[in-house]
Structures are given as structure tokens and as C-alpha cells.
Amino acid sequence: MGKVIAGMTMSLDGYIDADKVNPDFEALLETASFKQMIENTGAAIMGRRVYEMANPFLWANDDYEFQTPIFVLTHTPPEKFPPGNGKLSFTFVTDGVESAVAQAKAAAGDKDVQIIGGASTIQQCLNAGLCDELQIDVMPVLLGKGLQLFEHIDTKRINLERTKVEATTSYRTSITYTVTS
Predict the structure, then answer these.
(1) Between 117 and 98, where is the model more confident?
(2) Domains identified in the chain, total number
(3) Mean per-residue pLDDT for 113-140?
(4) CA end-to-end span of the chain, whole Å?
(5) 115-122 mean pLDDT
(6) pTM (2 decimals)?
(7) Structural domain containing residue 23
(8) CA distance 131 to 146
(9) Three-state secondary structure of the chain
(10) Most buried of 56, 115, 124, 154 (most Cβ within 10 A)?
């Protein structure tokens, strides 16, 4: 069975701002580690805000890196959403993070489930003990304010063991942790 992996890119001081912490995204797509991650992924989970960051009718196509079932954690499903393409599909999960992870694991089979954001979705998964790994990409930028990935984490319940550090691109450092409780 695959792992449940939460991943996020953040500034060196721990803030998340997709526009400011991903200037090397095109280079990241070409790295061996990113291609391996895509190969190992059988399903993805994202929050509603991440789903809506850009018009999903524009990004949810054959070019999107995750050509898998995508489970969107939300309180209210949208009235309209992209139809998918036979590989990429959307399921809107309204009954909590545990349900989203269970459905994604079933869809992924022996492959991994990637929790690709946002911060609240990753926080919920970590706090519920649903993550096997945490992959943090750190960018050498200081934002000084904004949304923090680890702001609402139950630090007494989550222990991390560093398993890998990699200079993924000329800017980005990727750190992988095994999550233990």
C-alpha cells in the first residue's frame, strides 16, 4: 500500500505564498524527484481554496501534472466543475478529512496519496494522524507575514524524523520527514 504524503513549498521563515515561493516551478517540473513523485502518485487531495486558486476549467486538463483522481475537501461542492479526462477526475468530499483520505487511498490502490494543499488541509491531516510523510520545500526568501503552514499544528502529537534532504533546483531545498505519533 502507498503512503499518504503531505507536501508544501514555503519561505525560509515558514510562510506560504504561491506566487512568491514558486519562481522555479517550471524547473521543478523537470527534476527527476518531481517526475518520480508524479509516477508514484495514485490520487491527490486538495482543499477548496487550492482548487479555486486558478480557474479549474483552465488548469484541470491533460497538461496538469496530477493525472489522477483528485479529492477536494470542501463544505459545499461547486455547481459546475471540469469533467476530467478519464485519468484526472474530481470528487468533492464534504464529510471531513478522514473520509477524503480514505477515498483517496482506495482510489490510489498501491500508489501514494499526495496532499497538495492548502495549509488548512495539511494541518487537518497532520493533526488527525493521517500523514505518513511530510515533504517541505524551502525557498530562500523571507516573507515576514502571511499564512503559516504550521500555525495550527498539535505539536504534542506529531513527531518528525528527517529521512531525506535534497537541493531540488538551484533555489529549492526539499526536506522529507517520516511522521510518527
Answers:
(1) 98
(2) 1
(3) 95
(4) 20
(5) 93
(6) 0.94
(7) 4-180
(8) 24
(9) CCCEEEEEEEECCCEECHHHHCCCHHHHHCCHHHHHHHHHEEEEEEEHHHHHCCCHHHHCCCCCCCCCEEEEECCCCCCCCCCCCCCCEEEEECCCHHHHHHHHHHHHCCCEEEECCCHHHHHHHHHCCCCCEEEEEEECCCCCCCEECCCCCCCCCCEEEEEEEEECCCCCEEEEEEEEC
(10) 115
